[in-house]
Please model this.
Amino acid sequence: MKLGLGLYAPTADNFRFARQLGATHVVVHLPGEEVLPTREPGIWDVDDLVRLKKHANQFGVELYAIENFPPKHWDQILLDGPGRDAQMENLKTTLRNLGRAGIPVMGYYFSLAGVWGRVAGPFARGGAESVGFLRDQAPPETPIPYGEVWGVKIDENPPPGDIGTVTHEQMWERLTYFLEHLVPVAEEAGVRLAAHPDDPPLPVLRGTARLITHPDHFKRLVEIVPSPSNGLDFCQGTVAEMAGGDVYEAIRYFTERGKICYVHFRNVRGKVPHYQEVFIDEGDVDMIKAMQIYASAGFDGVFIPDHTPAVAGPAPWHAGMAFALGYMRAIMKQLGVD
Model:
């Protein structure tokens, strides 16, 4: 098992920070144009991917995964729009380029509303600011307007109106199209696709169905196209937030079957529709027990803290991540799996 860090800003200082805290791998979250420019419409160029990987390697860490295609690269696939086939060909090219660059995992989140409705507050120990979903504090669930995905405007001049209701059947059909076309290319490229669950894990948001709101839904996803390249970004915090699921059982089930590519190792208090993210050692999940299950079931992938409460002081994010990484490293040493 490997200790990693997720980065929205893959800078030299953050690569150094990751390595100094004991991480050997990094996951780059939703890279912007300044990190991975779109040289051709909807495609990441192999030279830019190699450059990013080499940049990480300079500081002693491996680029293990990139998490999330930019919305403009695949909005037509998510929306089942007229441009979906063209975007699919572009995603295939990007996956082949990832393989050529030696980046083994591509994380994705198949959703229209995205991560929506969370609020910030002093939810963690000592009043540390964190985020959560509190139904009575969530913003109004307005319909998603045309030209928008994940709350991001894709089209500067969209037609008036909104996308209306999107059913679970429609979303599963769209995901099936995505996997049936992309998984075979991922296999050929030596890349694994890693699906993130819905956060918050509510069945419907803003009139659009959510796909992965219970661990059993992950079972359905990986069975659509059975392949080692059809895997999971196992966000343990989100799984713990799910109503009716057993996080420990889910860890064992998917680890034993080799479906987990990497883990978002964070803790929460509560379940939907009322939960709060907290420090790694104070939530509802016994994180030592959880890591023991990963280890005993044979997991050999990467753990990242995902996100943490902000710690008071001049570097709130870095302090929170340092605490989480130190806690995780200590468990791994105790288990003899570092």
User: Anything to note?
Assistant: The radius of gyration is 19 Å. The chain has one domain: 2-335. The mean pLDDT is 97. The first strand starts at residue 2 and ends at 7.
